[in-house]
Amino acid sequence: MREESARLREENEKLRRWQSIALAAAFGGYVCGIIRGPLPHLGETMKPIRTRVSGAMRVGVIGYGYWGPKHVRVLGSTSGVCEVSLIDSNPDVRKHLKSAFRNIRVFESLEHALPHIDAVVIATPPSSHARLALAAMQESKHVLVEKPLATSTQDALAMIDEARRSDVVLMVGHTFQYNFAVRELRQRIGAGELGDVLYIHSARLNLGLYQSDVDVVWDLAPHDISIINYLLSRTPQAVTAWGDSLALGGVNDLAHLRLEYGHPPIMPIMGYAHVSWLDPRKTRSVTVVGSKKMAVYNDLAEERLRIYDRGLGAIDEAASPDRPLTYRYGDIVVPHIRSDEPLAVQDKHFVDSILHGTRPETDGENGLAVVATLEAVAASMQQSKRILIEYNHPRATVTTLTERVA
Known about the structure:
alpha/beta; Rossmann fold; 15 strands; disordered C terminus
């Protein structure tokens, strides 16, 4: 009975995913302008990219896994996109799509799809990101790669160089940078509302989903690293990390990261991240502790962002028996946050960057900064010591994060 119930749930989920793709395919050329107007602070100060697409775009999505159907759905209702195609090497997936949904174009490989697309979204396992992206850019196709951009800084640098040589848009899917709760938090930090940032703590926990080609750090930590980089408008200089493989031998399913932001003699800001595939509760939260106020971003809560007027009194003075610590408890402010779907905002920004010839906010250098940090995390866990992060690229240490949001 339980097996039958599980089978029915699986079939219903598959049906729902197929229906999402069918709707996107059916209306892709006609439903436009769901997200209108310029996005705040997206692509405003980027170096122009000469290679543009005139008129509506044809976008291919590689990979029918977790993210592939989501991209097909949102791109199907994105203004500036006239056709969305799906590329998957699995013959069973292609057969089902062709028989069930005649309005969507299906290709078995990127090579077959290239003559029929202007841009491609790569939603395949990370080990294939660099190979597929390079093949597409060498044919002058614009590329959006799901996180992480690549599995090594060497591959990330090759992708950046090819994007420059081919004069195309290279963008990485750091989706949380397009989440308006995170953007609101960044604006308040930049405006000084929280005071000096003392530390940031991020938690990304759940039971699964275990991956076959990456560990929990490469699977989940790209989100946390990109969020902290974005909030602080800088990249870390060093990392200390530790973790463990508790359920599957050789695959880390639990990790803690300590990221150091800042150069001496300035006191560094610490960013902490806890990622796990082995936790009973799904958690997606970021806590920012400042000298004036504190903030909590909880992606799973109805009130996604809360600003706490709480803290310690006179924290710049040492406590003593004659001067004990005092605590301040003030109001809690819940800002109004736009409800736009971050993935839709991200994919719209990708399309706009191509159509207007602007560099995307989460460009190749932005992705390289995260990949370099991930490599340092892996080295720290293997060697059990603090590791300095080598970015190997002049723009990777600042990426698009040098300007604070006023």
